[in-house]
């Protein structure tokens, strides 16, 4: 997927600008690069910036028109990414609902998704929930390791990892506003290999466990407890560490690789010359947030944590470094990865 930054939301509403942007950032790389989607804006709705919010849907519509005019709409869809903080509640998963103040602006966006058949994208990071309350949340629960898990009291569904609980909370929120059939993709998830003293769990060992176990789960080709027949579509953040990124130490250490191409930790993945020339990292925060909820393994509030990392998303990135999220979904490489773990 290729992302169009928040700083372009006003400009891209100009049809000529939108078409030129798509030509320069998408069309010229086809078909050599498999590009399936453009996401317009990153975590816009949780900035609580009315100007950004009001410009989001018109920008998405303008980019979709450009894609259609260039006859790319059969292979490239248009969407946007959201922080998990668009949810007012996420525990238990069956009680997931959108923030009431966002429903008037998110509903037209959901209509747009249905109209053009594009997925709803969420940045989901169990790491931030664990970092917020490491004494309450079992590390095994967030790292896909053996644990007793939790049971949703309303559905009796059992969850043995937090990511699946977060995904199903999003499905519940969509169902609550009448969009039960809309597909959900995880546009970002990951775990930092290094952090500050107050960033619990940010170690190479935990990052390896999170991403390695995630690959294994995806290879099982099963969905979440609430959507067992729906394929998981998950993007890992990030390919490279980003040494110039602002914020806490963790923000610069989500990469699978160091800038020189050597692995931060071994997942059995090697960097090819084509990867180094055609792939980049996200200009977003790499920290999709989590919503305040009342009980369970989840923290009681996200405000103290989310405000810091969500603000990082506004940092502009030069157009040439505009993000191409590296899709770690293992359509062609998964079994290779798993065999080397």
Automatic annotation (TrEMBL):
Protein name: glucan endo-1,3-beta-D-glucosidase
Origin superkingdom: Eukaryota
Entry-linked PANTHER family: GLUCAN ENDO-1,3-BETA-GLUCOSIDASE BG1-RELATED-RELATED
Catalytic activities: Hydrolysis of (1->3)-beta-D-glucosidic linkages in (1->3)-beta-D-glucans
GO terms of biological process kind: carbohydrate metabolic process
Enzyme class: hydrolase
Stated family: Belongs to the glycosyl hydrolase 17 family.
GO MF terms, alphabetically ordered: glucan endo-1,3-beta-D-glucosidase activity
EC number of this enzyme: 3.2.1.39
Alphabetically ordered keywords of this record: Glycosidase, Hydrolase, Signal
One family name in Pfam for this protein: Glyco_hydro_17
């Amino acid at each position: 997927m290729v992302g169009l930054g928040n700083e372009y939301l006003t400009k891209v509403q100009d049809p000529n600008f939108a078409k030129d942007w798509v030509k320069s950032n998408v069309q010229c790389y086809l078909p050599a690069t498999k590009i399936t989607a453009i996401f317009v804006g990153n975590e816009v709705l949780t900035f609580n910036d009315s100007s950004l919010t009001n410009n989001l849907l018109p920008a998405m519509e303008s980019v979709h028109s450009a894609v259609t005019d260039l006859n790319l709409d059969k292979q490239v869809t248009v969407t946007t990414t959201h922080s998990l903080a668009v949810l007012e509640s996420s525990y238990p998963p069956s009680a997931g609902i959108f923030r009431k103040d966002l429903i008037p602006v998110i509903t037209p966006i959901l209509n747009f998704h249905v109209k053009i058949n594009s997925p709803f994208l969420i940045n989901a990071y169990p790491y931030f929930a664990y970092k917020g309350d490491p004494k309450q949340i079992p590390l095994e629960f967030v790292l896909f390791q053996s644990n007793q898990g939790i049971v949703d009291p309303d559905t009796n569904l059992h969850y043995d990892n937090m990511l699946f609980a977060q995904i199903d909370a999003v499905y519940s929120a969509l169902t609550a506003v009448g969009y039960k059939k809309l597909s959900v993709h995880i546009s970002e998830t990951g775990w930092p290999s290094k952090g500050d003293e107050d960033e619990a769990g940010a170690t190479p060992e935990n990052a390896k466990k999170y991403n390695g176990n995630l690959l294994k789960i995806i290879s099982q080709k099963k969905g979440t407890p609430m959507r067992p027949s729906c394929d998981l579509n998950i993007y890992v953040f990030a390919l490279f560490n980003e040494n110039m990124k602002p914020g806490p130490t963790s923000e610069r250490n989500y990469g699978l690789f160091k800038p020189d191409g050597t692995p931060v930790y071994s997942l059995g993945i090697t960097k090819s010359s084509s990867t180094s020339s055609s792939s980049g990292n996200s200009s977003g925060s790499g920290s999709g947030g989590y919503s305040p909820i009342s009980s369970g393994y989840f923290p009681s509030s996200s405000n103290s944590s989310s405000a810091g990392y969500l603000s990082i998303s506004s940092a502009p990135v030069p157009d040439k470094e505009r993000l191409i999220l590296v899709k770690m979904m293992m359509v062609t490489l998964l079994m290779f990865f798993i065999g080397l773990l």
